[in-house]
Hints:
This protein is α/β, with parallel strands linked by helices and 658 residues long. The strands form 10 sheets. Strands 5-4-17-16-18-19-20 form a 7-stranded mixed β-sheet. The protein has a 5-stranded parallel β-sheet with strand order 7-6-8-11-12, sandwiched between helices. α3 (78-87) crosses α5, α4 (118-135) packs across α5 (153-164) and α12 (367-376) crosses α14 (401-410). The structure holds adenosine-5'-triphosphate and magnesium ion. Adenosine-5'-triphosphate is lined by residues 273-278, 280, 318-319, 395-398, 420-422, 424-425, 448, 509-511, 523, 526, 618, 620.
Amino acid sequence: MSVSWALPFEQKIIPKKGASKLVDINTYKEIHSQTVKEYRNFWASVASELEWFKPWEKVLDDSNPPFYKWFVGGEINASYLAVDRHAKSWRKNKVAILWEGEPVDERGNPKEVRKLTYHDLYKEVNRVAYLLKEKYKLKKGDTIAIYLPMIPELPIFMLAAARLGVVFTVVFSGFSADALANRINDAEAKLVVTADGGWRRGKIVELKQIVDKALEKTPTVKDVIVVRRTGHKVNMMEGRDKYFDEVIKDIPQNVYVEPERLKSEDPLYILYTSGTTGKPKGIVHDIGGYETLLHATMRWVFDIRDDDIYWCTADIGWVTGHSYIVFGPLTEGATTVMYEGALDYPQPDRWVSIIERHSVTILYTSPTAIRTFMKFGEEWVKKHDTSTVRLIHSVGEPINPEAQDWMWKLVGREEIPFGSTWWMTETGGIMISHLPGLYLIPMKPGTNGMPIMGVEADVVNDDGKPSNLEDRGYLVIKNPWPGMPLTIYKDPERYVKVYWSKFPGMFYAGDYAVKDRDGYFWILGRADEVIKVSGHRLGTYELESALIEHPAVAEAAVVGVPDPVKGEVPYAFVVLRSGQTPSQQLTQEILKTVREKVGPIAVVDKVFFVSKLPKTRSGKIMRRVVKAVVTKAEVGDITTLEDEASVDEVKKAYEEFK
Ligand code: ATP
Ligand code: MG
């Protein structure tokens, strides 16, 4: 079936600022197809811009697909690339990590701001590496779990582990004891690094308590290091738990731990996916391929330069933070901003105040964050000077053109590049994006642009054949790329089954997409979140995007509910913007907007008003949870759920209606 809905915009935007190499679409496609044809040589030339201890012998070992190995024979170290190179160069006094804590003084300014130069970072990473190696006897191939709030010790421990070839798994500091225990056990971590607590929305997150509870069922953990952050009293188990300041204090300031010469295809970390659609998968990333992709995308997508103040608003607990707060920017010698707490606390303008305070030039954020900012209104944004920002990208979910437009006007001054980068935990780095730092094609709001150089992505139908232009299909990647997973940890069969079995020889992303007439990609959301109404297939995102276009609506989740006549009917759960109240009339207006935007078959059957939606901790709507509530099914794994009260809200709204 061809698409029943119009693509939200055919409008093209040519940024006036911050994009140096604008090209027309055909030129881009020509250059792109060359890099795809020659992808091995192409990626080899990118990889050669990194520093290798020993050059690779083979660019790609494809003898055992889909377990590909990149830059085989090469020796490399991610900690060396991110720290040593810059600390030994003119960048040594350049700020590497610019951090601010959550608590504010009476004037609303953060009480603590830490600026670690590359030299500082080098010293700290070496000392922690020494601690792990000499005192805790950790060695290459061992695994540790890191459960820290957003404080500089988090990247420091990641980089120290990477220096030794110790595989780390970062667990987002909002997760429950069960979620933490599952990840520790799956990864067989020997050591856990945590803090006494972390600050979030004026409260202490009791990290140590959660660790204590998790560790009741984690036989592999022998030691716990506790960073003092909040300073309140926590339980310390004799023999197992040590305060970080106490174990590190005797280690000299100038110790040097030689970075291990690791194989390119050695594992760097294990990271569990967000769990939006089901049980999280332990994705294992390599070093050489991963670093190559990050190096490329930091330049092409973010156009990173030495005078930039670069801020990715994600949490390091997600892949976005791994790749684009820690390893990507630091490998490029950039200044990367980190903050503790929330973007809208203590005031809705925390995020814009960070931009102003630190003169942020590049902003990488998410649709869920932008929709939250919109909910509070533009007055909060206008209180601050954001004119330093020269480039914006978004990630995590499809960006509805409404939200993109709002942000582009307010912060982007209608002149800078603003794209939506598509990728996932599995891909390691950005795969589909506009490339303002390389060759920029005219941008279209709501799209993801085109596959980056060297990556062959496509939209295919059920037979695995390319879909017609403007037809919805499945997003696939057709050639191996550096940064691809090594496997799912301890479950190679699941790796093959989930990603490589639907279409032989292609990586199946699980997302639903459209390629438009110009060849731009529109990633529409999960392929399994499709509603079939009277034989028509509607993506939940299309309906949600239309709902959000109504000025009273801040957020929406649509799910399909079985219906004896139509097969399925869409129900919408809606969060209103501040100052709006639910009413019959509003419901009618909202439904009218959807009909106008998506067409007559898109009849949303019911609208429910709630004050919050079930989301993952990374801010993605968990439609499967909403659906489970209305269909009275098993809710399933909700360890990654942000706030259990949101499920009760959905239940209540639904029950009241009945
Ligand atoms: P799980 O795989 O455990 O269900 P998850 O897919 O949410 O969780 P992530 O790897 O964090 O975990 O997210 C990747 C997904 O996010 C992609 O598959 C896609 O659905 C969505 N996504 C990311 N960026 C974009 C974007 N720019 N546009 C549209 N969708 C995006
Ligand atoms: Mg996924």
